[in-house]
## 1
Amino acid sequence: MKAIEVKGIFKSFREGFLLERKEVLHGVEFEVRGGAVVGLLGPNGAGKTTTIKIIMGISEPDSGEVLVSGKRASRSTRENIGFLPEAPYFYDYLTGREILTSFARFYRMKGDISRRVDEVLEIVGMRDEADRWVRSYSKGMLQRIGLAQAIIHDPDLLVLDEPMSGLDPIGRREFREIISGLKKKGKTILFSSHILQDVEMICDEVVMIYEGRVIKQGVLEDMLSGEISHYEVTVEGVEEIPGFTPERRSGKRLLFMVEEGRVDSIVKAVIEAGGKIRAVIPRTLTLEEIFIREVKDR
Amino acid sequence: MKSVRAVAYITFKEGIRDRIYLIFFFFAVVLLLFSLFLGMLVIGDPNKVIADFGMAVMSLFALLVVIFVGGTSFSRELSKKTVILVLSKPISREEFMLGKILGIWLNVILNIIAMAFLLFLLLLFKGSRMWGIFIQAFLLILEMGILTAVSLMFSSFTTQFLSMLFTFSVYIVSHLATTIEKASMTLKSGLSRTIVKAISYAIPNFDYFNLKNQIVYGLKVPSVFYYKAVAYFFFLFLLFSILAMWVFKKREV
Amino acid sequence: MRKGFLIAFILTLYVGILYENFTYKRISMPYVYGGWIIRLPSKALKDFSLGYQNVIADMVYIWAIQYFSSPEINFRTREANLRKFFEAVWALDPKYLETYSTAALIANYDFGNPRLAIEFLMEGYKRNPDAWELLSEAAFYAFKYARDYHLAHELYLKAYRINPDPYLLSMAAGMLERKKLFQLSWKYWWKVYQTDKSGYFRKAAERHLYKLKAKMDIDRLGRAVKEFKAKFGRFPLSLEELRERGIIREIPVDFYGDPYVYDPETGKIKPRREHLWK
């Protein structure tokens, strides 16, 4: 069951005084499986937000189509999606509670709205601040209210644009927990980010996007465990090994990052020099490294 | 329709709490009180001056609100990206625009009614029961409804300043329709006369919503006038609302 | 220490400002209340009023009142501007009756030109065919200041036709009297007498009717006496004799039916109730 199918999206904008055409998306294509947490990864300007807007039906692509649960992205598909934009901003002169109550009115809600509002405020941890004007909220609080209004109608699909930008480590952890909780309930979550650690920590699958194109996509685990990038060799008792530069020194120990093929050489060199091998640990590529490599390949 | 109401509600609530209203309202009240002084400068009945001045203040105040709030509200939405938040709900572009128009119009209505009440009480205090004030308030509400749609139409594709300027221009031109028609009469008959006359018919004519003179003198107005005013309002309001919705639909957000 | 100095300094500044405020009024500045407004053509003012005709009319009117009461301006300029000012007001709001009266007031009392005052009021009447008050005012100026009783009579009559108030008819009658049109005046007074059943004007009408009748009767009797004297060389012994001798057919009595008082020595006839008129 495919929650989202993005097929061959091209999008360009007219910008500037002379209305020049700027091409932003060149045939973006990927899928989001139902129940998965998918990270849309890419640097700023890669086209993540544009893609998301098209998925939400806020923007129209020049060509290609987007299907949400098998239907074209439209007003009705939005009934069952919760959206959190990047750096959310709300109406200054309403309170958090009023925002949630007002937004809830757009959806077909089951049961008592005010109870659900309380519930959701509790989940995002904004119970105490709910009755202050949004004007006075900090960035973190805005983010929380943002998430609250995204889940208030209990949608099956969540689309979050840079949901953790600007949050402190504690906030990020709380966020990750909320997302895990939602995942356990069987929700599908697509979120975009340019911070790789966040993606690594919670996503099942990853879609890498760069300069308006999808450069790699797949199950995160597979990606990471697939390749061994290098070995970390910790040695003791030698000052230097010819042909190798140590990465780090701590006390008597030296740490070397060694490509797969050269591990044998360095071990031999260390033993010949009279040193001791303390550890040889394989390191897989981090997501960052995979990303950079993919970009370079283009 | 539910979503239209939801947007209208949010817009209305946000608008009410905007401090700028209080400043406008304060000045309007000050001007109303000033009219008391003006009334004293006249040899005969001061109430005529108070009523005239009061109704003028009411009109101008409503105009200010529409221009200012209509002009800034939408621009604020666009720049602060609250539009995206709302559009991510099950709502279409058209519904959003309509909701905004209605929300702001509701604000304006509230202000007009408040002013009308104040003016009525002021006159009552001076011994005159001018119920006609509420009739003029009603017509003003219609006029401002149209202007709200115009204002939002402009806001959805130009800057704050330009949209305020254009809306104000529409207001002025719509009050000049009769004058332009009269002017066409002074031209020699022929092409230029026809063109000018055509222009005078093509633009909106807000004299349909002006009974200030008749009300002050307590004259009886034929009911046809009111029916026509309401019908005229519907035509113009729909026209500009649809234009606004259409422009917004085309706009990239 | 420094805070104290700052406060003292600010206070001194404020005292200086207060002093300036008080002394400003002593400077007598020549000031001409803006007559510039009359340079605006009155037609333009109406066409570009954008639906605010009434207020603008009020504003111009108030401005006019201030302008004509300010002492500094040249007398001649003021008179020239009077018409312009008010025409602007009337173009904007022709129904504003008070303004015609004010314009007339200024024309008559400030500039001593009652004809102009009448003209203004007639402009008002032209635009407001129900406004009998304007006619009445114009009649008053005609009577009191222009001394044109003929015009006054006409205006009062016109006003009466719109508003059948016995006062107006009385005034018209009075004008006729001044023009010595006694017969016509009698008719008017009789109407007043009939229509004002219990009021003040009925009594006035009585007096005038009495006086008029008396005058006409005494004239006739006087002529009869003269004729008698010419015929018989002496005054008649009584009014009866005039009848006996065939000079007059019957002896008129006063309005109340009482005979006139005749003095056979002087031949003069007097009404019984001379006190009824001053």
Note: Chain B has a mean pLDDT of 90.
## 2
Amino acid sequence: MQIIDVKGLNLFYGKNQALKNVNIGIERNKVTALIGPSGCGKSTFLRTLNRMNDLIENVRITGDVTFEGKNIYKDYDVIELRKKVGMVFQNPNPFPMSIFDNVAYGPRIHGIKNKRQLAEIVERSLIGAALWDEVKDRLNKSGISLSGGQQQRLCIARTLAVEPEVILMDEPTSALDPISTSKVEDLISKLKKEYTVVIVTHNMQQAGRISDSTAFFLIGEIVEYGPTEEIFYKPKDKRTEDYITGRFG
Amino acid sequence: MSNMGSSINKKDYIKKELFGKIYSTFCGLLIIVLTISIVFFIASKGIVTFTRNHVSVIDFIFSSKWAPESLNSNGTPQLGSAIFIVGSILVSLFAVIVSTPLSVCAAIFMTEISPKFGEKLLRPSIELFVGIPSVVYGWIGLSVLVPFIRKNIGGLGFSFLAGGIVLTIMIMPTIASVASDSLKSLPLNYKEASFALGATRWQTIRKVLLPAAAPGIFTGVVLGLARAFGEALAVQMVIGNSIKIPSGLLDPTTTLTSIITMDMGNTVSGSAWNNALWSMALLLLLISFGFILIIRKISSRRSMR
């Protein structure tokens, strides 16, 4: 069973249909990349998986999305779901608090108060996000005082702290410089040992570098989905080939 | 031909530019000159109490013996303003302490809980409230609040409590609108990040948004405090104006602003009594400067982030 299974998903913003009959199964402990031109619906799709679209008015969804076999709307409380399906955003968005409080935020709101426990979780998460060595002596400094790449890794640590099973990433490196980008890409390759990663990216080279499977979105539909090597070297659909070879997008 | 045309336009243009520059410089200077003159004027009249009437500054601020018509054993008039200073401080603090939680909750409601209703109904109402003249607040306090307190709670009705309540209502729009602007200007990212971690709306508000908006909210509180401190008419109409430190909420008392309002017309210019009122005006001015400095310090720290 796939960790996330999507069947017949349609999404409407008011009268506008943003996603059309999307069917896809996300494999556990793999990195799945979602690629496609701007406005094709890949971010919208990503946000459906942890019900972030609930925050937007006039959104209507039909179809079935299941996480570990259970329907994310009918069988899950949204708070529970978001603990298990975390999200990292395009623009690093640490809270205006200390580094420690940023990472401890998730565990604290879910009820963990014990200081030693929190300290352990913070250390573990920062190590997991490859940031611990750089900040371990200044956990009390503001999260905003870090550089862009560090801030993004802080956001990843923050997400790891609630111990999700899936990490959704919405263009996580598009606002970062090349060095930070490659650090985050290395991190993603390591993360898949324990987590499942779904990453939206504009950068095809990135998708080629780090993902195991790739889905190509075009105008709200998945045109093709398969192992990354196939999509990039032996695409079945002409539209996929055109996009990969840069003829549009 | 075209050369001549363009040089005429250039002269015209330069004249207009110069005129605009001179005019705006003049207006700017005028404002500065007016402000400095007013400050100088108040300062010069306010110092007379200490220079000519030989009242010590310490006595003025800390003594509660206010008997401006009599002379004490040294031959100097008794002009201790401690009662008024305490009155102003206490009633302003009361207003701020009561008003801030109410205003912040109103701001949260306007920006987070019901933004549509908040924009359409609450915000215009608040802006309306700010425009109501203080004499109207005072009159409503006088005709409704004072009798209510007298009948249902006790005392004369004219009381510290009445002054505090009127001020609380007067400064609520100030604090609420600054607080809601502060909340609104927070980056949307914070909310998103918090929700994505599995927080509820109230957790997000309490643990992320309010702390992040705190500097702005604090500015609003200081603005409210400054307004409460400087409010004269509405307070004077309901606070009772008896010259003693209140021993309870229902006791009448006096503030710096209310005594100036009350005694202004009854004193002779140049008399010690009159000079003392000017000194109180100077004190009010200095305290207002203090508030402004605090606000500027908070704002500059915020923009450094």
Note: Chain A touches chain B through 27 residues (CB under 8 Å).
## 3
Amino acid sequence: MTAVLELRGVSKTYGTGAAEVHALVDVDLAVGDGELVAIMGPSGSGKSTLLTMAGTLELPTAGEVFIGGQPISGLSRNEQARIRRRSVGYVFQDFNLLAGLTAAENVSLPLELDGVNAKTAHRAALSAMRQLDIEEKADRFPDELSGGERQRVAIARSIVGDRNLLLADEPTGALDSVNGEAVMRMLRNACQAGIAGVVVTHDAQLASWADRVVFLRDGRVVDQTAAPMEPESLLVQGS
Amino acid sequence: MSVRHALLALLSEGPKYGLQLRQEFEARTGEVWPLNVGQVYTTLQRLERDGFVESDGSDDESPQKGFRITAAGDDELVGWLHTPGDIGAPPRDELVIKVLIALTLPELDVQDVIQVHRRHLIEAMQQYTRLKADADEDDVTLALVIDAELFRLDAAVRWLDAAAARAKRRTRRGAASTTARKSQPSPARRAARSVEVSR
């Protein structure tokens, strides 16, 4: 398995002197293609900072972030921005869809911003929406969609084109548990199709959809789950 | 619930008499597990036989007989606190007691104890979720059975999260007033007892 995302000895410090905050301390994390990793930890443990570093939105104070094996700190700002546009997809808690664009236009937007022509971008958008079983809502506007449908569109936007890293911050937001589960099922399927996924959540039920759960405390990785046993072993235990 | 390990935890603070052990045990477990003196002495005799405690050798039934923990007893206690329980059955009571006891041991990092149990619970949740993920989405019966397990385990994880947050807050404030509180039943302990009775 190739590491699509790797954080090697990553630390992030905000402020100086008495106001210094160590948001991340010497974090090592590798996520391969096809793998979904959940990051859990209490408020202030560094979950969102980790996602910010993984998405190259900020550079670490120490250590290095690699995307597709490429160290980010050696790249120019333009090159970093290109990686964000082409390789990284984001899913936010509140969907962040543009109200004036249709579902398909929202999904194709990252490609068009990257210079892909409108027709090709639209085709890619429909393909991503088909994968999430939401293609029939392509011409609807966000306010004509339910919460679960909006999040499907947001996930389609995060995987459109050749993106290979999906970063999600509390992606089930205010959805109920069954719709939240549907979102996690889709993220899992998207990852199994060959994308590396990192999802930040405080919800153990959502985290349990991940292949691996990494626990943060005070900016440090303190623990992670072992590779899961085959599901059949549960039935044997319970019988 | 392990009376053995609770007594070891109390003795890890220093030598104590049998009667004193009974009183402190009840005070620290929120008085939800009343113990009689006989139970305390039987357990202490077994602990002595196993090499986990030593007595000062006076009369067996004397309330003035003192006990102290051995190095093997210390190892036994720490091992037990870090050993996840059987989560096939409702794990909450054992979990609660382990965390309550861990909180009273100043040399132990309660966050580490909590994390061992949190990981164990979430690993079990991952296995149940994989069953659900691999099943037909329309198999409502299976989903509901699995959900029941997931919600039960999730409740324990949430309780651990709350325990971790409270323990952290307590560490920040300092444990200065802890000793004073232990000596008499607090309103929280009385509430815990009434919850136990109503179960």
Note: Residues 92-198 of chain B form one domain.
